[in-house]
Amino acid sequence: MMNHKIILTAGAGALLCTLSTSALAAIALDRTRVVVEGGEKSVSLSVSNENKQLPYLAQGWIEDEQGRKITHPMTVLPPVQRIEPGARSQVRIQTLPDIGTLPQDRESLYYFNLREIPPRSTKPNTLQLALQTRIKLFFRPKALIPAKSDTPWQERVTLTRSGERWLVNNPTPYYVTLVDGSTRPGGQPVKGFKPLMLAPREQHAALSVNAAALGNSPVLTYINDYGGRPQLKFTCSGNACTASPVRSR
Questions:
Q1: Are 225 and 175 in contact, with CB atoms under 8 Å apart?
Q2: End-to-end Cα separation, the chain, in angstroms
Q3: What's the CA gap between 80 and 78, in Å, rounded?
Q4: 195-232: pLDDT as tens digits
Q5: What fold, for 27-144?
Q6: Which CATH superfamily is domain 153-245 in?
Q7: Sign of CA dihedral 237, 239, 240, 241
Q8: CA 227 → CA 2, 101, 109, 143, distances in Å?
Q9: Burial of 243 (0-12, 13-18, 19+ CB in 10 A)
Q10: What are the 10-residue block averages of pLDDT along the chain, 249 residues in total?
Q11: The model scores a pTM over 0.85
Q12: pLDDT of 161-170, one tens digit each?
């Protein structure tokens, strides 16, 4: 999932508000999440200026889980660059020597931010719009890099029924993001389902909808490394449910 924030400036004033669409974006990223694997010196992201008339500046930085800007153990290069109208460029997430101080038995979570800076308007009293993109950035230790033949770790997630709620259990050392729920594969998403990100080995995280809304065989949708949205169908025995992948037709 990708979060956007609009920055509106008029004269010396500034206003921040949230936006759920990237329709106004001039500076665009080529992905919705980044995975930096142990042993990698850097990861390159493609950045494009979708505005065909004006050059824009693209400013990048990294934040920790608490939203604080950091420059270690990863940094963004270049921190600011000019991208010509309709042109493409790259921004790199560079690992630093102290990357080895991060936990090696589980993933670590950060956020990559990219803000577009429009050219200054020559017209008086002009309202300028700029979009800031924020996506999840995961550091995955070398020992946890899965082989291509490995079963997706999300399939190890289980559900436990507790009263009127389904509780999600993540036994893995990876982050798991659930974005949708339904009563059957390919079915309509349940209203009121709020995305849920589980930390490594997090247990008993409650889904936002009641258990009855998802039925006796819940289907949950997760986001994989590539931004895809596979589904998991849960088979229950008593109050405990295990997952199996929903195969695309």
A1: no
A2: 25
A3: 5
A4: 999 999 999 999 999 999 999 999 999 999 999 999 99
A5: Immunoglobulin-like (2.60.40)
A6: Immunoglobulins (2.60.40.10)
A7: positive
A8: 10, 28, 16, 23
A9: buried
A10: 64 39 76 97 98 96 97 98 98 97 98 94 74 96 96 98 96 98 96 98 97 96 97 96 90
A11: yes
A12: 999 999 999 9
pLDDT at 3: 80
Rounded to whole angstroms, how far apart are CA atoms 29 and 151? 28
Q: In DSSP terms, which residues pair with 91 in a beta bridge?
A: 45
Look at the block and give the residue holding tokens 């889904």: 207
The answer to whether 22 and 217 have CB atoms below 8 angstroms apart is no
34 to 64, 77, 160: CA distances (angstroms): 14, 15, 30
Q: Which amino acid is at 184?
A: R
| Tally of residues, the chain | 249
List every span in the chain annotated with CATH 2.60.40.10: 27-144, 153-245
